[in-house]
Design a protein that fits this description.
TseB-like_dom, Nuclear Transport Factor 2, Chain: A, Cystatin_sf, alpha+beta, 2 helices, Peptidase, transmembrane helix, four-stranded antiparallel beta sheet
Amino acid sequence: MQSRREVQRERSRGTSKRMIRDLLILIILIFLVGWSIYAVGNHPKAEAERQATTIAKRYANLKTRTDFYIYNRENTYYTVAGKNNKGQRILVIVPQKNGSVRVVKQSTGLTEQQALAQVKSNEHPKRVLKAVPGIFNDKVVWEVTYLNSKGNLCYDLINFKTGSYVQQINNL
């Protein structure tokens, strides 16, 4: 016959095991829900990237992809950066909806780093958020998004070929 203490210890061990099991189930459920939300939320971007890359391979002989950008202004454009079959660095700009695919050699204009350096030099941002290529007024541009010294959101559009400012939107 077991003493009361032994019975209490066994119950205590059973309760501890159940708590550990329940905690593990909860952690697994949280992970699965988080992963599901991420997968569903990221699906449109992943699909756009896949389609733009396929188009870039077909129309611009893209061989290696180095980057992918999404530009949202008047229209949405997906840009695939990489090298073509001649080893030239290119940007392939694909409109989300109607329009023609544009292929530009990166050597004919500003690089992402040059556009960023220009904004940093001229505007002294607190933090740069992103730089993406796109089309504005039928010209290829770099859109640099940053927080100014006051912490306000700003957008600078820089002409890809000339490096001149096309538009600046400050203090949003």
